[in-house]
Design a protein that fits this description.
5-stranded antiparallel β-sheet; 23% strand; alpha+beta
């Protein structure tokens, strides 16, 4: 199967003003050529990772059902948003998607392999790690050497 025939999931994690992690997911389903954008919020990195894993599996298992109720914007009603909210997701109506998003692909109808999920968690941990702090003495040393 060609890479273009695979489902693609783009994931972006940002910190909102309240300090919570807002995770945006753009799922492009190859068989139906449909794109779903959704998001959720998590208070901690651990919660984010577990909820992301559950969300990706939900999107994979319910691809046909989501497509049936959400592909046509005129048909999107309360039922579609209830369907998303069952998994803790909200529909993302924003047009643009952040650059530098993590990308994960899978064959249509197949779940992610454990190795793929482990790699995704590792890459998320790298992005969520706090930036190293520069000690005040190091800053002074830089200034005096210039």
């Amino acid at each position: 199967m060609r890479r273009a025939d695979r489902n693609t999931y783009r994931i972006s994690v940002e910190t909102n003003q309240a300090g919570r992690f807002e995770t945006r997911i753009e799922a492009r389903f190859a068989t139906s050529r449909w794109t779903l954008r959704a998001y959720f919020r998590a208070a901690t990195p651990e919660r984010l990772k577990s909820h992301l894993q559950a969300t990706l599996r939900y999107l994979q298992r319910h691809e046909d059902e989501l497509w049936m109720w959400g592909a046509n914007p005129a048909d999107r009603g309360l039922f579609f948003e209830d369907l998303l909210s069952q998994s803790g997701l909200e529909l993302d109506r924003r047009r643009e998607f952040p650059r530098g998003a993590l990308v994960v692909t899978a064959e249509p109808g197949e779940l992610f392999r454990p190795l793929q999920l482990a790699e995704l968690k590792r890459r998320l941990a790298e992005r969520l790690a706090p930036a190293p702090r520069v000690a005040p003495r190091a800053v002074e040393a830089l200034r005096s050497s210039a």
